[in-house]
Design goal:
This protein is an alpha/beta fold. The protein has 39 helices and 31 strands. The chain binds flavin-adenine dinucleotide (FAD) and iron/sulfur cluster (2 copies).
Length: 1024
């Protein structure tokens, strides 16, 4: 038997510091048989986890590779965006509702509680567990199905879809169907591009515009739920409802009776209504008990699930009523003399208008704005704000421009009649703007505030985001009380910002958990904050982010004992054995919020500012295979902590060895170093840079390998010269031996060589044909000279089309053909056969050789372009990005183009385009995405084909040849590839990426220049 924490008469004996997680112990909750004392961390494995694991493998046929128990990965998954860490005994990657349905009864049987994990962006500690984590993201196409209904006014979703992705699906649906109205999802958390539907439902997340009316509680129509006993209820299916009512009579009766009891209690009903009139995610959504007919338990259950943080059941499908996304928008940024005036303005707007969003910035937030050049040029009066000065960012929307004007008028009239103290005259100094560049800047700054605080904090601390709300009329005094509280406790960087229209403030500050004193300061501040918000202002301790472990000890303070006990009763009804995420939302440990705090050891300046928010994860090609960027950083932090210990104990040394060993493959070898993580990182961290620096450090110790690289760099022309005949030879073997033999032999060699020898696939290119002679312009044209430097990368100089595209010439031939039609004079850089951008060396950590090659290349490009006078087109996007990244001479800064960009900028007026294909796929390489070329690329393809579908893959994971040496990397990333039927051809601008996309789809991917060449003719001269 596990050790059991005892309570009741022995309550004083509980030692929470050593833990006892969720074992059944008698409690004094009325009517309850058994509940769990949660004080995480004392989970003793008495064999139950082994038994659970063997049942998963043997009874449920879950493959071993999906059951993670090693020290490094369980540590990595112990991290979510909150400041808590719990180490799971086991992480199971789940693939379907069917699996959840089967797993839950086994979890119940073995008493091994489970926590569901979607994107892990939760901030309150609800997505971590010291038991079993059931991970539903990072599994390719699983949990990502959807159906858009009608014109988009309704959508059915599986829980692994990212919320922002759903909005893009709705946009595509409108475009394709030619519908009149654009719909979007109601919930709009600022984590929208990372969080998943499962988490959004389970946290009842909301954001800047959704208020209390467009959150999941109010916009969800139906749901499929898996209960702890494995029963599935589909609320959209009458047969399922009927069956559930029959098989779960007892549960349904209890739910109905509880609703009747609450509805009969006028005070309680009034309290619930009052509390949910503002944003509230503290405790369960007990408004479900008053908003529905007590005799309709299914409707009540459906709503109770919302915001239940995975403690009552698993949501396997959700049907939402979407909301209208008005196309016409305008915003203004108004400075007020005092936060009182700003809050009063928010209250007036809420009462009198239908304004769409009102965001507040306190003085500390405005100080952050001062670092932002663009907003300072738009609102230069920002620094004039006094200690209690504040600003409001206001947005109006409308279906037409005229209606937008009406809405703006209503807002300005209300503001001007409210007797407010603006810092300067409102109309002249702070006007509304319909210019996307202007209002885009305002909103970029608002969205960037949390990262700005996070990015400016001391290394070794965490950024904390508290999330409170009160009635708008109380916002001003509450804000001032909270500001005074922060001052008292020494939180100098604390900023108060948020959704003023909803009375919702985010309190953002840095916090160390390095010493007892720091933890005590945090605990004292937290106690005071709860008293100010919940007691003094009767507000919500969590407006949007969910209760989690963070405010679980304060639910009773906020709700009062009667409502609190009802919440415990609900938990008992749905999950009497406390198998589902116990300790979250409700927790009897009064100190749970200050336990298992996550340290943030200083590791490397490249990643020290990481907030572990997880926004980067969905962009990472290795997320299914090894580690995500966040996990790489987390594990690296632990390695750094262990390395920093002088005189390590044997235990610490063994742990360090194990971490280093596993990190070598999971952290280092399988990082594509493409930097797509940086694109989504609010504080701009490129984990690939960290990995490249680790590789470089390792190579410094292996001098002989570096000298081989240097020699290869010096003799690059010989190397590029032998590759094409070698590839032709391999292609010849392919013709003779067929797929099977080459695959087996190269797979074997790949393993024997420790992933040094690339694994062959049937779409490997043949050797590239000889480069074509450069064009000479046929005539002299008026205006800008038609001359270009063309750099065929070493990849296109070596790799030609695959065996299946035998009819095609090389990429350079297609490019030359296009340039010839546009009558361009073409210049190749000098010494081309010896040139390389350096990426080949840089991505492997050979920094010195990479720098030497980059410098040589730059010199050749400067000469060929006459110091940047002529444009330079590089036919391979990753090479262009590398060149731009290592550029020393500013003369070339604006001369370098990747193919789509060059064609769009220089050739559109010189070529006639025809749509030569019906439906094509495009994959914009990660490097082009980072250069901001995605739209240009798409528009160009749309000139050549009737329909164009993007691959939807952030990065294919090829990373030069890494994807051939670690084929699981591209395999994992391209599991997400979901091209529609009817797509005949695929196009990209990186030969190696094209090869891997072809290998993982039914479509042959090749260079975009082939499509443009096929679709264009020289533009006829206008007749005189
Ligand atoms: C920088 C930052 C900004 C944020 N801004 C906002 C904001 O503006 N508004 C806001 O509301 N939130 C915000 N959040 C919090 C968070 O992003 C949201 O709550 C988000 O919806 C969580 O989704 P997720 O996919 O990450 O879920 P997870 O964190 O993985 O899980 C959330 C909870 O849902 C449970 N769960 C997951 N899937 C299921 C399922 N299928 N069935 C049942 N339970 C499930 C989990 O067990 C957990 O309790 C922010 C977070 C960060 C880091
Ligand atoms: S690297 Fe950036 S995006 Fe990723 S977890 Fe850290 S802060 Fe968040
Ligand atoms: S560089 Fe690429 S592979 Fe490496 S962590 Fe970042 S996104 Fe993942």
């Amino acid at each position: 038997m596990p050790q059991v924490a005892t309570v009741g008469s022995n309550a004083s004996k509980i030692d929470y510091s050593i833990g006892g997680t969720v074992y059944p112990v008698p409690q004094d909750v009325k009517g309850s048989k058994v509940v769990y004392q949660n004080a995480d961390g004392m989970r003793v494995d008495d064999g139950r986890y082994q038994n659970f694991k063997s049942d998963l493998k043997n009874e449920l046929a879950i493959p071993e590779e999906r059951i993670i128990t090693d020290a490094v990965k369980t540590y990595a998954y112990g991290t979510d965006a909150s400041f808590y860490r719990l180490l799971p005994q086991m992480v199971v990657k789940i693939h379907s509702e069917e699996e959840v349905k089967k797993i839950l009864p086994y979890a119940k049987k073995h008493q091994t509680p489970v926590t569901f994990r979607a994107a892990g962006t939760s901030l309150s500690g609800q997505a971590v567990s010291d038991s079993v984590l059931l991970k539903l993201s990072h599994v390719g196409k699983n949990f990502r199905d959807y159906t858009v209904h009608e014109d988009g006014r309704k959508i059915t979703l599986e829980p692994g879809l990212i919320l922002g992705e759903v909005n893009r699906i709705l946009q595509a649906h409108k475009k394709k169907g030619g519908h009149a109205v654009q719909y979007k999802m109601g919930p709009d958390p600022s984590s929208i591009d990372s969080c998943m539907v499962g988490g959004v439902v389970a946290n009842n997340s909301s954001g800047m515009c959704c208020g209390v009316k467009q959150n999941t509680y109010h916009t969800l129509e139906d749901m499929r739920i898996v209960f702890v006993d494995g029963t599935v209820l589909d609320t959209a299916d009458p047969a399922s409802r009927e069956s559930f009512l029959r098989t779960h009579q007892d549960l349904c009766a209890k739910v109905s009776n509880l609703a009747k009891k609450v509805q009969a209690d006028a005070d309680l009903t009034a309290l619930i209504k009052k509390k949910f009139a503002i944003k509230c995610t503290t405790g369960y959504s007990i408004n479900a008990l008053v908003d529905n007919d007590a005799n309709d338990p299914i409707e009540i259950i459906k709503r109770l699930m919302i915001g239940s943080e995975g403690t009552l059941g698993f949501v396997s499908r959700a049907t939402y009523n979407t909301v209208v996304d008005h196309p016409h928008k305008a915003s203004c940024f108004i400075m007020f003399k005092d936060v009182d005036d700003a809050c009063k303005a928010a209250a007036v707007l809420r009462r009198e208008t239908t304004v769409d969003a009102v965001e507040i910035f306190d003085k500390a937030s405005l100080r952050q704005c001062e670092k932002h050049e663009k907003i300072m040029s738009l609102v230069p009066t920002i620094p004039e704000a006094g200690k209690y000065g504040a600003a409001l960012l206001i947005e109006c929307r409308g279906p037409t421009d005229a209606e937008l004007d009406q809405n703006i008028k209503a807002v300005t009239t209300s503001l001007d009649n409210a007797n407010l103290n603006f810092l300067h005259p409102r109309e002249e100094t702070y006007p509304f703007s319909k210019d996307p560049a202007v209002y885009g800047t305002y909103w970029d700054v608002r969205k960037g505030l949390i990262p700005m605080v996070g990015g400016g904090r001391e290394a070794g601390t965490s950024v904390l985001i508290e999330d409170v709300a009160c009635e708008v009329d109380s916002l001003a005094p509450m804000t001032k009380d909270l500001m005074a509280m922060f001052e008292k406790h020494g939180y100098d960087d604390a900023s108060c910002m948020g959704h003023a229209l909803e009375g919702n403030l985010h309190l953002v500050f840095s916090q160390g958990f390095r010493t007892e004193k720091e933890v005590e300061t945090y605990a004292a501040m937290m106690q005071e904050m709860c008293e100010i918000v919940a007691v003094k202002y009767k507000g919500s301790l969590k407006a949007e982010h969910g209760t989690g472990r963070n405010v679980a000890p304060f639910v009773e303070m906020e709700w009062g004992t009667k409502a609190y006990e009802i919440m415990w009763e609900l938990k008992e009804m749905f999950d009497p054995d406390y198998v589902l995420n116990p300790g979250v939302i409700l927790n009897r440990d009064p100190d749970v919020h200050q336990k298992f705090l996550k340290p943030k050891p200083v590791a490397d300046p490249i990643v020290d500012m990481c907030m572990e928010c997880g926004f980067c994860e969905s962009n990472c090609p290795s997320r299914d295979v090894s580690l995500t960027p966040r996990q790489r950083i987390t594990v690296y932090r632990e390695i750094s902590r262990l390395q920093a210990i002088e005189n390590r104990s044997t235990e610490d040394q063994a742990r360090l060895d194990e971490f280093l060993d596993i990190f070598s493959y999971a952290g280092d070898s399988t990082c594509a170093a493409d930097g797509m993580c940086e694109v989504k990182c609010p504080v701009g961290i490129n984990t690939g840079t960290l990995v490249k620096s680790i590789r470089a450090r390792e190579l410094e110790q292996a001098k002989n390998v570096s000298s081989v690289a240097a020699s290869l760099g010096r003799n690059f022309a010989s190397f590029t010269g032998v590759v094409p005949p070698f590839l032709n030879m391999v292609s010849g073997f392919h013709s003779i031996l067929g797929d099977g033999v080459l695959k087996t032999v190269s797979g074997g060699l790949n393993k024997i060589s420790g992933n040094l020898i690339p694994e062959w696939n049937p779409h490997m290119p043949r050797g590239a044909p000889k480069l074509p002679e450069p064009n000479h312009a046929k005539e002299k044209h008026p205006g800008v000279e038609r001359k270009v430097v063309y750099l065929p990368s070493c990849v296109t100089r070596m790799m030609g089309p695959s065996k299946a595209d035998a009819n095609l010439e090389g990429v350079a031939d297609a490019m030359m053909s296009i340039l010839s039609k546009a009558d361009y004079e073409v210049v190749y850089p000098k010494g081309l056969s010896d040139q390389c951008c350096g990426m080949l060396f840089n991505s492997r950590g050979f920094k010195d050789t990479a720098l030497t090659k980059a410098a040589q290349m730059e010199e050749a490009l400067l000469e060929a372009s006459e110091n940047g006078k002529y444009p330079i087109v590089v036919d391979t996007s990753p090479c262009l990005a590398e060149i731009k990244g290592s550029l020393q001479n500013p003369a070339l800064r604006f001369s370098l183009y990747e193919p789509a960009e060059f064609i769009a900028n220089h050739l559109l007026d010189k070529l006639e385009f025809n749509k030569v294909k019906k439906h094509v796929a495009i994959h914009v390489p990660c490097s082009s995405k980072k250069l901001g070329v995605e739209q240009t690329f798409t528009k160009l393809a749309e000139k050549c084909a009737e329909e164009v579908t993007g691959s939807g893959i952030p990065c294919c994971g090829m990373a030069g040849d890494r994807g051939m040496r670690y084929p699981e990397l591209t395999g994992g990333s391209l599991k997400y590839l979901d091209l529609p039927k009817g797509c005949t051809d695929g196009y990209s601008t990186s030969r190696t990426c094209e090869m891997s996309l072809t290998n993982h789809s039914d479509i042959s991917f090749k260079g975009l220049v082939y499509l443009v060449d096929e679709a264009t003719t020289a533009k006829k001269k206008a007749s005189a």
